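Give me C-alpha cells for this 146-residue protein.
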Amino acid sequence: MVSVLLLNGPNLNLLGKREPDVYGSETLDDVLARLEKVMEELGGRLEHCQSNHEGVLIDAIHRAKGVHDGIVINPGAFTHYSYALRDALAGVALPTIEVHISNVHAREPFRHQSVIAPVVLGQVVGLGTDGYEWALRALVRKLTQG
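Here you go.
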C-alpha cells in the first residue's frame, strides 16, 4: 500500500475564504475529502499536515522518511524563500511533487521563483484545487510503476 504525506503551508487553512477569485471557493476540508477518496480508489493511504509554521512542516518532512513513500506539497509563500524546507525535502529524498493552486508564473514577479522546484519530481501549477488530485495520481503512478 502506497503512503503519501500531503503538506500544506501558510494560509492554506483559509482556502475557500481567502481571495476566492484566485484560489477558488473550495475549502481545505473539501480538498482533503476528495483526496481521501482518490487514495482509497488507488489503494493507498494519505496523511495530511497543514501549518503556518515552517518548523512544523520541516518536522513532518523529517518524520516522513521510512513512513511514507512520497510527498505532495503546496508550500504556499515558503515556495519562494524557504531554503530550510527545500533542504528538508532534499534530505529525506522522498519523491515529491509541488502544487500551486494558482498559476504562480502569471502573477507577481516574486512568485515566479521556487526554491523548492530543484528538489522535486515536478510541479502542478494553475489548475486550481484539481492540481492536488493530478499531483497525487502522478506521484502514486510514479511510485507504483517506476
